[in-house]
Please model this.
Amino acid sequence: MLSKYVLPALAVCGALFAVMFVRAGNKPVPASQPVAEPAMAPFVAYVAGAGLVEASTENIAVGTPLPGLVTEVLVKVGQPVKLGQPLFKLDDRDLRAELIVRQSALKTATAKLEKLKNLPRPEDVPPAEARVAEAQASLKDAEQLRAMWSGVEQKGVVSAEELQRRESAVEIAKAKLAQATSELQLLKAGSWKPDLEVAEAEVSAAQAQVQATQTQIDRLTITAPVDGTVLQVKVRPGEFAQAGVLATPLMLLGDVSKVHVRVDIDENDAWRIRPEASAVATVRGNRDLKTNLTFVRIEPYVVPKRSLTGESTERVDTRVLQVLYSFDRGALPVYVGQQMDVFIEAQPFGASAAAR
Model:
């Protein structure tokens, strides 16, 4: 009974289920509606490209010339800054201690130079003059004694040895007088010129060391390179700031009063781009928000494509020509780093070179 009725019935039900499943799977899938209507080109012939909004000064990745511990961040995201305004500071305690040492060395060298310039001191001259007078008196006394003993010798009372000692005493007194006179002249002449030059060189070297240390301290206060707006802050007090080129900049800023859009043009369409051609940019997500663009420049070096749109058909090995346009940011609600659809008027394919 089971094999005669139940098994055939189950086979028929399985066949019916398979037929229904196949028919359901073969139904056409309805096309999904796009989140936003795609942008439409206003030109008959055009070149399309993805544009990336950036500051008119380009997006400046602010770094530090010296690595160090961040002690203070002086700006916030969105804050306008002026050229030379401090952005953040690094720890400079070791350099400030070194600066004190350098300043002390400069003070010592300066005092030494001033001492040499002010020689002789007024109070040093009278003792030197007194030594000259003393030497003159000693010489006069020695000469008188020699004359006296010379007169006695004629009578045969004084020996020749005693008279020779008197002659030697006169010579010694003359030498002492000459020494005292020379020392007085040297004192009055002041410092020797080579000594002054050496002292001046020491002062210059000390000043240079102070200036070098002060420059190092100044470099630890990072300032704004241009007038602009702070776009991004990725550094906090207490963090260690690395020097050099970083994958994530410590701080990003630029002038956004007037923005640029950097358009990537496929290298196959680069020959169709003309500086005088009209161009229009559309905000992604709302094709009704669009603006005319003003040509700025073409960067003549073709680079690998980096700004990807995320489309499945996009080639990542494409090289692109980058064209910069400008527009008034107030005309559109766009932000730096946002992508836009850009259409540039171009000659149709097959147009002659003369037509271009």
In short: The chain has three domains: 46-56+256-345, 61-89+221-253, 100-215. The first helix runs from residue 2 to 25. The chain has a mean pLDDT of 84. The domain at 100-215 is CATH 1.20.58 (Methane Monooxygenase Hydroxylase; Chain G, domain 1).
